[in-house]
Amino acid sequence: MAFPTTGILDNFNRGDEGPPPSANWTDIAFGLEVVSNEVRGSQFNDYSWSCWNVSAFGADSEAYITMVDTPGAGGCGFSLRCTTLVEATIDGYLAWYSHASGVGSETRVYEILNGGFTQIGSGDAFAGANGDKLGGEIIGTTIKVYVKDGAAAWTVNSTETDNTYDQAGYIGVRYYSNIWDADDFGGGTETGAGLSIPVAMHHYKQRRRR
Amino acid sequence: MIAWYIVPYEIDISKSAPGYPLKNCRRIAMCAYNQYIWTAQGKWHGIEVLGNRAIVKIKAPQAVLTTIDGVYKRIPKDNLDDSLADLPSGVKVALKNELIDMGYPITEIVERFGNDLGQHTLGNVLRFMARRRLIPRYDKQTDEVVFDLGTKNCQPLQDVENKIQE
Hints:
The structure holds 2 protein chains of 2 kinds. Helix content of chain A is 0%, strand content 48%. By secondary structure, chain A is an all-beta fold. In chain A, strand 11 (133-139) and strand 12 (142-148) form a beta hairpin. Chain A starts with 7 loop residues before the first strand and ends in a 21-residue tail after the last strand. Chain B is 31% helix and 24% strand.
């Protein structure tokens, strides 16, 4: 199935703002901010987390962003199927990219329970670079982390399953550190675009005029 | 080669954890060996079970398994259909003690297995381990994860079996 299936929700092309980045976002913890037409965490050496509050999506949903640059060490990811917009009570899933200087960068999936995190499975190696795109998707009980490595196509880098949360919820972005800029946040309810739809074939026979 | 282990959960306090700098992020301790396992073309997967532990299945070269054997408890069979009948008595006792240490009452263990695990398969025992797991809660006041919310279902053991094949 193609990824993503939804459009851009926020391109951050406006004056510096936040946190939160706009009235369409709710800060879960510290919050994101718009700087120079891009989005970043508002905290240095701490985490920032904001969710799109315009509507809940799903239950099947997706989110994605462009990583303008990557920090020396830290992480960035998407919260999916979030049950609330309050850190102490938020449940759901996190599709996460952890960036390490040198070897050790990975994509991972976490369960979120009351604002705490439990990693599902082992994670998978991926070394992100400036300009790469990162995505998260949950369909049914399957959570995927997508990466778009430069000009290459989107590919699945992590796949995990979990059946704890199955309702529609909010999507959001969580960062560690404020020296990691991103752009073009998109997402929403998974539309299933890219599935082949049967088309009736009509055969025409050209009649030759005599 | 394939091997099964019982591995503890740990708090991930690295900067790459989504919870950093808070101690609210848990992971299977085998994650610390990811680069070592992946460099050797190996892979692993696990599910959480009772006792803040995980059942982990690894596919990796023997040298990697030998290293992991020295760190975590290796389960003494490799295939879910393997009978435990030929295990030494001491090994079966150790396996039973692991179930007790996880938090399963002896009455529940005996009800399921009788008095001899040797009458059962590896799969029977692992599925029993995966009957339930503790619900974690992050206490922001003390900056620690506690387990005072009871238990919930585990993810299916079959997820692990499907993901890690010989």
